[in-house]
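Schema walk-through. Below, the input block comes first and the output block second. Nothing else is stored per chain. Lengths vary across the set, and this one has 623 residues.
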Amino acid sequence: MKKNKFQYWFDNQMASGTGALVRLLFIVTAIAVFGVGLLVYAIFNRDAGYANGVFTALLHIMDPGTMAEDGDGSVFYIVFMLVVCFIGILLTSTLTGIICNAIDDRVQELRRGKSIVVEQNHVVVLGTDNGIYTIVSELIEANLNQKREALVIMDDKIPKDEMDEHIRQRFPDTKTTRVICRSGSICDLNDLAVCSIDTCRSVIINVDDDFLTIKSILAVTKLIKESGNKNCYITAVIRDEHNIQAAEIAGEGYAEILSFRDAMSRIIAHTSRHAGLSAVYTELFDYDGSEFYIEEHPEVVGQPMFELNRYFPVSIVAGMRKPDGQILINPDPQTVLEAGDRLILFAEDDGVSTPAAEPAAVDQTAVLTKHVPEDPLTNDILILGYSSNIPLILGEEDHYVANGSLVTIAIPEDQAEHYEELNALSFENIKLQVLVTDIYDRDELEKLLRNDNTLVLVLADAEDGMTDEDAEMKDAKILMVLLQLKYLAGKGHRMKVTSEVLRSENEELAEITEVNDFVIGRNISSLLLAQISQYRELKEIFHELLTEEGSEIYVRPAKHYIRTERPVNIYTAGYAAAIRQEVLIGYRKYDPETDSYTIISNPPKDTMVEWGDEDCFIVIAED
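--- output ---
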């Protein structure tokens, strides 16, 4: 029984970790030193004293080389000390092994990404779903004006060392940003504590699954409340609008919830009619080029909205923020900037928007005051592939097309289950035709291109929880369709193609197919997550621009605003838009030699441009 108890005690000590083993080894060593010292004192050299015996034992246990000085002793003394040296070697090697194992365990723990992050004012990204590289790229760009910033990424899908390798391969130089990877569940409180939520600036939840996103919001919110980090907030995307309220309840005011399924549908619809519009959205939402800033400029207090842009030579006044936090994008032209109001500026960087002492002159004779409504779209529309966003896209298109316009939806056999669902759709102006056919076959595609100038939308269904492999396969099918359309365009078929791409990594491949424009919905979501994680106020601006209420981004003919075929500066063009309660943020210039368009956003306002009938203004305006 006693033997079993000792064995049980010993097993518990061995399983108690490095500290317990070192303590046990120290006790055994102390017993050995004092025990051997007593024997040396009692048997071999009583005159030298007990302390000398202990010191002799300690030297032999710690250093076997001390045996070299034992040659003058008796054979029994030498044999005894040899045994002591063997005990010392056993104890020392055991200690060395314990220390080596402890170091190895620590290294393995670091490789597993379980060590706590000791940073201040950092950004935490939870989840490595599609879009992570866009988020990392944007945050690196955003931190360029800082000396030292940290970005912490946590996920449990891939090991920490693999995450590190992927980041190093994609971003060999992270500039002023340290990218720190950790492994763990994004919903587990203990794992999340490793990321130091109590000292971070913001948390981005980058997960494709709404339920996992909401669970992660709950966990992070609990940590924020417990830590008292009142400056921290969460930014997350919800795919299904039915889950928005649940996400907001989970966030308890600490979360900025983005839901852009409806917005992405409008972006696709608008882009199909205006080539290059997706580049405008990317310019608005990324850190490369101009971004939105909120700044106070008391120098222009008292000026009406339609005059404000004449004071700023290198930035665009898009609206204002009232002292109570109300965001006004593209307000009434007569709205006056009051003391305490802050301007919403579209500029290259913060601090560059210095107003002039006097407003710039404009060419009033070039400005058209009579509003010319846009003509309804008369082109046929061909949609290739199924997407759950089709009802939303066609609902948006229905506002702009002429009555009786034909929209053909062609889906492959593996998506035939959606035939009845699509065939049941009904619109005011659109006449709908749904076909099940092989959209990857060139001959079948050619039959669908019955008329010239057909607008072609190539769509993919971004399902919740979709893996990277699934997205790659869907993109591969999209690229197959685009290559076939490129061949048909070379045969003389005139069409304008807008394609959806699921993974931003496939953007360059899509460009090879010479598509007129393509939209990467997840990429836009990632850009927005990165921006709002830096400036929480931007959420209201983007919400205004991406929802049906209020102002949106439009591409409209320049000839409806100013007299064409004469040089006019951007001040004048902006004034022509401002008096109609619109904000000019750029323009699209047509090149007849190459039959292509160039998008220019936030141009210097003293630039002189000769506008043609095919050129367009890019404006923030109400529908």
